[in-house]
Amino acid sequence: MQSDSYTIPYPRNSIFRTIAKWLVRGLLKLLARLSVEGSEKIPKTGPAILAVNHVHVLEVALAVAIPDRQVELIGNGDIPFDPAYGWLANAYGFIPVKRGSLDRDALYKGMDVLRQGGLLGIFPEGGIWGQANMDSQIGVSLIAQRTQTPVIPIACGGMKGVMGLILKLKRPSISMKVGEAIPPPPASASYNKAALKAHADLVLKEIQNLLPESERWNISEGEEFAVTELGLDGGDTLDEIMPEVEGIVLAKLLSTPSFLDTFDRNLKIPVEPMQSPERLWQASHWCRSIDSLLSYNSQNPGFFRYRFGIEGGLQMGPALRRLRKFIERANSLRKTLRLRVQRSRRFRNGEVSTTVLEYEIIPDK
Fold it and tell me: Are 65 and 25 in contact (CB under 8 A)?
């Protein structure tokens, strides 16, 4: 079958990608102390899926620079990239996937890469906002099943604060460890989500087991979010309380910096009041942020559903609208609205980490 019979050719952009590979590989070795283990487990020929952990953009660079063969990546296609590196991602080229939905176009393209004997790179955590604590996504297992292709787990370590150290020319230690191939799920004409999820969980577990031991302890076994205070200065009270389910998603939004950074840097949504609890912001500034988030949610409801789960995504709109109502009441009374949110995380080593953020939303001048 000719390459033009596929939805995407493999390999492609070969000259640029080859130059980029060797340039990035050289820079990584120059600017960091890089160790690579198990690269021989990446097959020299034939199809394979490279499943890589994803807490930093640098893992993408490692995924394309270290293998000797060209890697076709499946990447974010539902929001713009961070402008700091988006131009490079677009120049290299990738298969965009609309996260939060069954993107058949991305699936077909990924499968066609494998049918041509290519290497397909996937990040099965689906995003970097969870910092190695993301739930697995079934896309990697669905593609593996439909093409009967093995999955090669890969873990990149040393990512915490890595860019700051590189920019200071401190040559941080980073690593890439390749594991043993995981067979695909049994071929089936039916769609069994539970079986695919179990396979995806296995892939993610194998990736985590390849992380440096110190980083494996930083994987949380659970986290809880809550609004622990929401009230007015003085004796006045709010007309109602915020339901617990709304408080959970609001606390998760405010307590996860990568969410807010995405809105700020990638989407240019004005969320600075939410990013800066140490400052006093007026009611109108908060209302502007909330209105912008509500507008974006109406345009792209999959954003919150993908990152918060279906139920959490459905609660985000009501939670933001209720908070806006409370801010308006406080502003009308010329009172400060106090908001405190909490995030608690339990780690594998038994430690518990609690983060508390306190906001004071003052009346407009």
Answer: yes
Token reading at 146: 């439909």
The answer to whether residues 159 and 118 touch, using CB atoms and an 8 Å cutoff, is: no
Closest CA relative to residue 261, chosen from 214, 307, 314: 307
Please give the sequence-ordered ranges of beta strands (E in DSSP) within the chain, or none if there are none: 33-37, 48-52, 71-76, 95-97, 119-122, 151-157, 173-178, 220-232, 281-282, 337-347, 352-362
In angstroms, the CA 39 to CA 70 distance is 14
Report the alpha-carbon distance of residue 184 to residue 56 in Å, rounded.
27
Cis geometry, peptide bond prior to residue 96 (ω within 30 degrees of 0): no
Q: pLDDT per residue over 330-364, tens digit each?
A: 999 999 999 999 999 887 777 888 999 999 999 99
Record the pTM. Answer: 0.82
CA angle 206, 212, 213 (to 5 degrees): 95
For 285-335, the pLDDT digits (tens) are: 999 999 999 999 998 888 888 778 888 889 999 999 999 999 999 999 999
Domains of the chain, CATH where assigned: 3-216 (3.40.1130.10), 220-362 (no CATH)
